[in-house]
Specification:
By secondary structure, the chain is of the alpha/beta class. The protein is built from three helices and four strands, in the order βαβαβαβ. A four-stranded parallel sheet has the order 2-1-3-4, with helices on both faces.
Length: 88
């Protein structure tokens, strides 16, 4: 199956996503900070990154750019709990 990097600081949301992804046979690497996610992206290849836009230690857009620099062929899906368009 696919190798996925989940970048989510919220335990509840991350836990739900991790359970669903692992139950479907994906190899999951869950990181809770931008720094840890960038380190993981530098250590191994991922097919897909699920990236929370609102991390406490990193701007999600900048982190996306950094991950794409390390892994240009990796697909990045940005997630957010924000409701207002101007917040995104």
């Amino acid at each position: 199956m696919s190798a996925l990097l989940l970048v989510e600081d919220d335990e509840k949301i991350g836990g739900l996503l991790a359970s669903a992804l692992e139950a479907n046979g994906h190899q999951l690497c869950w990181r809770r900070t931008g720094a840890a996610a960038l380190s993981a992206a530098g250590e191994r290849e991922f097919d897909l990154v699920l990236l929370d836009l609102g991390l406490p230690d990193a701007d999600g857009v900048d982190l996306c750019r950094d991950i794409k620099h390390l892994q240009p062929h990796c697909v990045v899906v940005i997630l957010t709990a924000k409701r207002e368009e101007m917040d995104v």
